[in-house]
């Protein structure tokens, strides 16, 4: 008869795991913020006519940038 023994790699616990989680969260937030900022800058650089051609009003830029950054 054959037996299989599975040993899982030890998971990080305590403060080290929390620090890694914090680092990962911070990295994600920074990337999202960069996408938001870049999107706002690019859309604000367009003229009102160019925005109208895209069906966007200037007041919608923050919402559109937030969707691009945080719902992607």
Secondary structure: number of strands: 0
Largest sheet entry? none
Helical content stands at 55-70%
Q: How large is the count of helical segments?
A: 3
Task: Provide mean pLDDT, rounded.
Answer: 90
Short note summarizing the structure:
The chain has 72 residues and is mostly helical. Helix content is 64%, strand content 0%.
Any overview of this molecule?
The protein has 72 residues and is an all-alpha fold. It has one domain. Helices cover 64% and strands 0% of the residues. The chain has 3 helices and no strands. Helix 1 packs antiparallel against helix 3. The protein is elongated and about 70 Å long. The N and C termini lie far apart (51 Å).
Please outline the helices and strands.
Elements: H1 15-44, H2 48-53, H3 61-70
Annotation keywords:
72 residues, single chain, 3 helices, mainly alpha
């Amino acid at each position: 008869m054959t037996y299989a023994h599975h040993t899982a790699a030890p998971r990080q616990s305590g403060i080290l795991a929390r620090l890694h989680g914090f680092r990962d969260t911070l990295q994600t937030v920074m990337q999202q913020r960069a996408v938001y900022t870049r999107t706002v800058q690019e859309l604000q650089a367009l003229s009102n006519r160019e925005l109208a051609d895209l069906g966007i009003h200037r007041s919608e830029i923050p919402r559109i940038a937030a969707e691009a950054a945080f719902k992607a």
